[in-house]
Amino acid sequence: MSTQVTLPRYEGSLGRRLALALRTPGGAVFVLAAVLLVAIVVSNPNFADPGSLIRFAGRTAPIAIAAMGQYYVIVSGEFDLSMAAVIAAQVVLAGNFIGQDEARILPGLVVMFAVGALIGLINGLATTILKVPSFIVTLGMMLALTGLVRYVTGGAATGNPSDAFRDIGRGGIEGVPVVGILPFSLLILLVLAALAVWLMRRPFGRSIVAVGDNAEAARYAGTAVWWLKTRAFIISSLSATVAGILLVGYAGVHPSVGSGYEFAAITAVVIGGVVLGGGRGWVLSAAAGAFALELLFLLLTSLGVPSTWRSTVQGVIIIVAVALAGRSWRATRRPRRRGGVAPSTPPPPPSPPRAQRQETSDA
């Protein structure tokens, strides 16, 4: 008679699991964001006001959404450099297609999401089917969209969507206790974050991490790698579309809206502990990385550091974060030591005696 043994789903208490999670690169970003927030409050106590905090979260929501979209591409082992160009194209499309006609808001949103999905589909198929490196594909898409936007606008602001459309990005639920107003952009971020967590718990999420870790093994396991990565690019472009819709409310319609968002999203993802090359990282850590990055810039501003140093700071962050995340994730994969001694490897089999080797060679 066999005895059925039920194994616990998790090991250790909740506090222990939380402590172990915070020691990983994906968990450390939440600690970093908290430390930066405390530092800003110390340098500027007015920032501790709930209204200020909620407005900051609303302004940061677009880059956090873009970072979550970039996460899917990076964790699959690819890059998407076209996000900023997609945002600019969507902003110009909204300004010229919707205009002041509120009846065009819903059709305009449908057109924008369709364009975003088409761009992601092209990026994905060119990368997976044509075997062009994603860095080159998305760089080419960025240049093509940027040139198209400049041709349409002449490099200047054109079009102005209705206030009802702009309220999606700059409006909110008013009369909320304590905070005063709850921005729509923050609500959209929370909904998309919950959807992202759900998606990563589905077979798609587990498969995309497996593809980033070892695409060949995933292919042998029966995974359609080309379609999985293509969907990651579609999600990235749709995330850029949502970010563009929100940015219209804050910045209006201009071809420079969203400039630098592709690098900001990549920086946020690597701050969140996602390994460039794929296979490691958490989607919520990418969003937390966006908040940590914006908090860092806000702290530098409060300390009197010129904003022209932003690009330098982003470059240093990318180099340091990638190096630390790679080493930290590799350390978590090493076999555990027992009693401070690494597990021993079996010794190689002894070589045959010299006489036996001589008899073998004579034969």
Spans of at least 5 consecutive residues whose pLDDT stays below 50 are: 1-10, 334-345, 355-363
CATH architecture annotation? Orthogonal Bundle
Looking across the biggest beta sheet, what order are the strands in?
Answer: 1-2
Order of helices and strands: HHHHHHHEEHHHHHHHH
What is the class in the CATH system? Mainly Alpha
Q: Measured on Cα atoms, how large is the radius of gyration?
A: 25 Å
| Helix/sheet category | mainly alpha
Q: Roughly what fraction of the amino acids lie in strands? A: under 5%
Helical content stands at 55-70%
Mean pLDDT: 84
N→C terminal distance: 54 Å
The number of helical runs is 15
Biggest sheet architecture? 2 strands, antiparallel
In total, how many domains does the architecture comprise? 1
| Shape annotation | globular
Subcellular location: Cell membrane
Keywords: Cell inner membrane, Cell membrane, Membrane, Transmembrane, Transmembrane helix, Transport
InterPro entries: ABC_transp_permease
Protein name: Autoinducer 2 import system permease protein LsrD
